[in-house]
Amino acid sequence: MVVGATGALGSEICRLLSAQNLPVRALVRSSSDQQNKEVLRRYGAEIAEGDLRDRSSLASACRGVTNILSTATTIRAKQAGDSFAISDQQGHLQLIDEAEKAGVNGFVFISFPPIPLEFPLQTAKRAVEERLKKSNLKYTILQPSLFQEVWLGPHLGFDAANGKARIYGSGQNKSSWISFLDVAKFAFGALQHGYAANKTIPLGGPQALSPLEVVGIFEEVKGMKWELEFVPEAALQQQYESAVDPTQKTFVALMLGYAYGLEVPMTEVLENMPLQLQLQSVRQFAEKEH
Fold this sequence. Notes:
Blueprint: E1 2-3, H1 8-19, E2 25-28, H2 34-43, E3 46-49, H3 55-62, E4 67-70, H4 84-102, E5 106-110, H5 120-134, E6 138-144, H6 148-151, E7 158-159, E8 164-168, H7 180-190, E9 199-203, H8 211-222, E10 227-231, H9 233-242, H10 246-260, H11 267-272, H12 282-289
């Protein structure tokens, strides 16, 4: 069962599982976009309506399930009555409870690497990670670094079409930018490889690059000089300290994580999880965007 199946990452995991002729149940809210549900049906997924806020729906959805993969978060798909504490934390804790009762074998949970700040989404993620570690489930916690498709996209000020980029912090600290397509492959691989059992595995792309180096790659690919806007780390810190809304505090904290840099060495993971994949580089992503 894939939880968060209508998101880009969850949908791709469903596609990979179905491509291997594995039966897939996609847990989706009744309010989820019908087009997204139809895509999942075309992949061959069984649609199960449920909600992390509704324990009874989780109990029903877990029946007959061997493994659960959860990509769900309210950070982008928030509805009335949602919060990081309610869905990301309490909802997942309920899901783990019901998974144990139903005799589910394994649980793959998508999180992110630690950021040295306190903020609601991180509080929720770490609470779920700790509960998984104490459960009777075979767990894998995947902690991907910065998603190329998110952080190098227009929603966060990286406008490849117009050659403009918003840089958080100095732009000099390196991160291991990763594609969600590769994260989906690791999530699928975690079900297959004993190495991943009962482990927390940070994930990154093939090369750690600073935001300024990333811009340099895009400038080469696009053949144009980019216009840069810098958001100083001190300004982000001030926003973080003054934020009272949980979503705002979380977004600013994640921007500070970007500013600090999130490097993830991948040699050990790639040696022990031979998934026959070549991690997508920032240059390859830039060429696809071009």
